[in-house]
Design goal:
451 residues, alpha/beta, Rossmann fold, pyruvate-formate lyase- activating enzyme, OB fold (Dihydrolipoamide Acetyltransferase, E2P), 3 domains, six-stranded parallel beta sheet
């Protein structure tokens, strides 16, 4: 009884945990199947960050639970943040689940499946931090990978339960990160995406020379044709040295994912976010001035308790001014166990929905104008796959995997998993269309291109 069907929910950080579990199980002789009907064991790695994530997790558990009645499944395992947060409630409400494995114990999955007796709840304080020697099976496409440089969080954001689910902040050693990156690049990975709960805090718990600036420089100077991309940066205390490294090395994507959450000082204070609106404005100005071609991604929350019309329109004005290349809008989710859940001035859902729609409409207009500006330009792209409509799907350096738009190559031949030069021929709200061009043709025509 060792065939396993795996489901991974949530963000890229959770996906890395899934890949570690797959590695641990494979090392112990477990086999993987692509259909739950064929599985002896079904494992669901869950997210519990906000209400929608919890709903998705519970629905998935109930759906997979049916295979214990009607399929070959003998064990149903629920791992990750949902049992870390709600294990006692889940044991009572989901008797079909055999094992609940918290985000602090997921790395023990093979051991637990082999040795557990009657115990079915394994939830402890998260302290585990994987390294380059940890077994891991990547499930992303071959040409890109996520590399987790840290785990946990020390920020006291009032709307967030991540510190409770993931533990205190802990950074990996640079030597370990570089060794894992080399393994990836040797296997043909072209794009390494650095992730963590807060990547700009990297190294603050280590000795002084272990910081984001040093890490980026060491990654950039590795002798491979590659992209290095930075996700999940925190605006307060953004390391300016990292910007200098990004400017100096073309292998580092001119792309920064920097969730600001809000711009009203009153709301930022209530959110317990460090820094102020003026600091955020200055940082955006600085990043654009230092790297005019930088692509900025952010996320914001609308409908936070106490958010007045004035607070909201400060946010609208900020989005209009900043003109982010990519923006995610979250409707405030009132999470039990957070400081914000007890705040007065909860915003009615109808108002939250209206504010969400207004910001989304504004960002759609910004994205449309941004994409219009690409037409006629030549860009390097990473070819992801052949398109079902013909041609290829690709991304330029300003588009992160899974969360941003695509470049659809309609003319010319390209190799999946390789870097190609394309000329942008058309655009839509989120995506671009292009044709493959050659370096020799660009030289003949005297046309410059950007990575």
């Amino acid at each position: 009884m060792n065939s396993v069907y795996f489901i991974s929910l949530g963000c890229a950080k959770n996906l890395v945990d899934t890949e570690v579990m797959l590695g641990m199980l494979s090392q112990e002789g477990f086999l993987f199947v692509d259909n739950p009907d064929k599985a002896d064991i079904i494992i669901i790695n869950t997210c519990a960050f906000i209400k929608d994530a919890k709903t998705e997790a519970i629905d998935t558990i109930l759906e997979m639970g049916a295979y214990k009645k009607n399929g070959s499944c003998k064990q149903l395992i629920v791992a990750g943040c949902l049992p870390q947060r709600y294990s006692s409630d889940l044991v009572k409400s989901m008797p079909e689940v055999d094992v609940f494995l918290g985000s602090g114990e997921f790395h023990r999955i093979a051991e637990i499946l082999k040795t557990r007796k009657n115990k079915n709840v394994f939830v402890n304080k998260p302290v585990f931090l994987y390294d380059h020697n940890t077994p891991r099976i990547r499930v992303t496409e071959a040409h890109y990978a996520y590399l987790k440089i840290s785990e946990g969080c020390f920020h006291p954001c009032s709307f967030c339960v991540i510190p409770k689910l993931r533990g205190k902040y802990r950074s990996r050693k640079i030597t370990s990160i570089i060794k894992e990156a080399k393994k990836m690049l040797d296997c043909g990975v072209k794009e390494i995406n650095l992730i963590g709960q807060d990547t700009t805090a990297y190294g603050r718990d280590l000795k002084s020379n272990e910081n984001l600036e040093t890490l980026l420089r060491k990654l950039a100077t590795m002798p491979y044709d590659k992209w290095i991309r930075l996700f999940y940066t925190y605006p307060h205390g953004f390391p300016i040295g990292a910007v200098h490294v990004m400017k100096a090395y073309s292998d580092i994507c001119r792309y920064i994912d920097i969730p600001v959450q809000h711009i009203s000082d009153e709301i930022l204070k209530s959110m317990r976010r460090e820094g102020s609106s003026s600091e955020i404005y200055r940082l955006m100005d600085y990043l654009r001035a230092q790297m005019p071609d930088v692509s900025l991604r952010t996320s914001i929350i609308v409908g936070f308790p106490g958010e007045t019309d004035d607070d909201f329109y400060k946010l609208v004005d900020f989005v209009s001014w900043a003109k982010f290349d990519h923006l995610g809008v979250f409707k405030y989710s009132n999470e039990e166990g957070t400081y914000a859940a007890g705040l007065k001035g909860q915003v009615p859902q109808k108002i939250i929905d209206l504010r969400f729609n207004e910001v989304m409409k504004l960002q759609q207009e910004i994205s449309f104008d941004k994409n219009r500006g690409y037409v006629g330009k030549v860009r390097q792209v990473l070819v992801e796959r052949e398109s079902k409509q013909g041609g290829y799907e690709a991304r330029h350096m300003g588009q992160g995997p899974e969360v941003d738009g695509k470049v659809y190559i309609e003319k010319g031949r390209a190799k999946v998993g390789s870097f190609e030069l394309v000329k942008i021929t058309d655009f839509s709200q989120y995506d671009l269309k292009a044709m493959v061009v050659s370096t020799s043709a660009l030289l003949r025509e005297g046309i410059a291109y950007s990575r």
